[in-house]
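--- STAGE predict ---
source: upstream dedup step, 1 unique chain passed
mode: sequence only
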Amino acid sequence: MRQPLRFPWPDLDVDDVSAPVIAVRVDVIGTKDEVPDHRHRKGQLVFALGGAVTCRVPTGLWMVPPHCAVWIPGGMQHSNLATENARLFFVYIEPEVVDLPDRCCTLSISPLLREVIVELANQIANDEARVELLASVLLRELPRMPVQQLHLPLSPEPRLKKIAAALAKNPSDRRTLAEWADRVALSESSLARLVVRETGLSFGRWRQQLHLIVALRELTSGASVQQVSADLGYDSVAAFITMFKKALGKPPGKYLSGIFPEYKN
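--- STAGE serialize ---
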């Protein structure tokens, strides 16, 4: 059962704090946890030191594997779903103090910036000089972090929302485009055009992107390549690895060890 994430400061409204940067550590104990839909004035960086978190915004689903972070601009509605035993850091940043996009994006986080985030979350309130120093380093380094293509475009279009919800619930669903078109009362060609217009991707590429997000989430939670391949409905492990390598340039183990040095599977 999913439980709401518990913060160490349940009564604090981050938007009421004038500090340019606020960092807090959030540990998920045992079960999967989530933060329901909400928004705040400050921008938010969701950083995963261990485990993974999936962030949903109105226009997409964003994956945060270990040692990466997702940037959520201020004022944007979003929800966060963390894997079991995840180690997360939420960093809240005042608008206009950092040069980051006005859209969501997944960023690789360097070892230096990772340690800065951890130290910021560990600081006590009376060490203001150190907090200011760490915050200035974070604000300077963050715009330099490379962007990772780990998101699934979503659409408010009712028929696509229906398909996306069904695939998210059962990623192994292998119905063809024609079968989905029949389910939402469209012709196959009309559905194909609708998916491209609303997401910028073909139906096959869109579903593959969902598989990548699910695969990364599960692999970083400790699932084996064999288990993930089966859960996603692939006929063989080799077929899954081929898909993964074609999309991300490396097989699962090498890709994850590149962004997560401690990864072993």
